[in-house]
Amino acid sequence: MDYRADPPDRLTLLETFMPYPAARIMLLRGVVTAEDAEHLRAAFVRSLTADRFPLIVDLGSLEYADSTLLGLLLAARARTASTLSVPSVPPWTAA
User: 43 and 13 in contact (C-beta within 8 Å)?
Assistant: First the structure.
């Protein structure tokens, strides 16, 4: 997939399911700001309540995220019994 087609100043959210090991994958790319909070909150709730599979949130394709994303990730983790993983570190966080 060529992800460069979307403008980087918008959030794009892609979700998929990986059958083995069973997990839901959510790829965020572009920019996350407070304007995206309700959309992301709904996506997290939908993915975490759909079944008992872990949710992996891939941040590797984000151009920018403000503290809104951190708050949403922490809230999502606090309200679920399933696993929430955030394995990728976006390039803009590197020192």
Answer: yes
Residue 38, amino acid = E
SS (H, E, C) the chain: CCHHHCCCCCCEEEEEEEECCEEEEEEEEEEECHHHHHHHHHHHHHHHHCCCCCEEEEEEEEEEECHHHHHHHHHHHHCCCCCEECCCCCHHHCC
**Residue 42 phi/psi, 5° resolution?**
-65, -40
Are the C-beta atoms of 8 and 28 separated by less than 8 Å? no
- Whole-structure pTM value: 0.71
Which among 55, 66, 48, 4 is positioned nearest to 29, based on CA atoms? 4
Q: How confident is the prediction along the chain (95 residues), in pLDDT tens digits per residue? A: 344 445 557 788 888 777 767 888 888 989 999 999 999 999 988 888 888 888 888 888 888 899 999 999 888 888 776 666 776 555 555 44
